[in-house]
Amino acid sequence: MNDNFCVFLDAGHGGIDPEGNYTTAGKRYQHDSGEFHSGGWFYEGVFNRRLMSAVMEKLDRLGILYIKVYHDYLDFPLEYRVNQANWYYRNFKRGIFVSAHANASGVNARGFEIYTSPGVTTSDRIANYMWQNVEDLLGNRIRMRTDLSDGDYDKEARFYVLTRTLMPAILIEHLFFDNLQDAELLMDEEIVDRFAEAQVRAIIQYGNSI
Fold it and tell me: Were 178 and a residue from 4, 104, 142, 191 both cysteine, which residue would form a disulfide, CB within 3.0 to 4.6 Å?
């Protein structure tokens, strides 16, 4: 892998108070049954950080450089997180931006999605690596949601972290936390580890391709 390579890691949606309660409106869901982060409450920000902690543990073992642009519990503004990554990209090392999320629909949807900015970009390659690794590691246990209209697996959107970053960037939606079955999967440590493994494998494949 190129020595001039760094992974900029973003875990979406903080806002966790000192007692561990999640305070960001719209990024939490109370299920009628099951045990999640606080009784029936699933907190997206807590999952995002648990996943990225697993990713960082794997990157540490492999000696792959990364910079965490999010806070452990505060909800740093998107602009601040992107500006942080862009500064290090300009002044320290080149790399890619990976933003981890879990989805919600309000209509009981399920599945895994990955987003890049519109058009054919260098982000498509890392997105394809990520998609293929998730399918290999989890495809028989989760629904894979895609948009093949442009010939690749990722969906396209003008999310801030995809359009304002200087480096190739992907945003990953790890299942729907407001669906009970998906939420239960996201609480499974093996599932979390497989998602983290898929991300690390994609990072290695992309890093070796440039």
Answer: 104
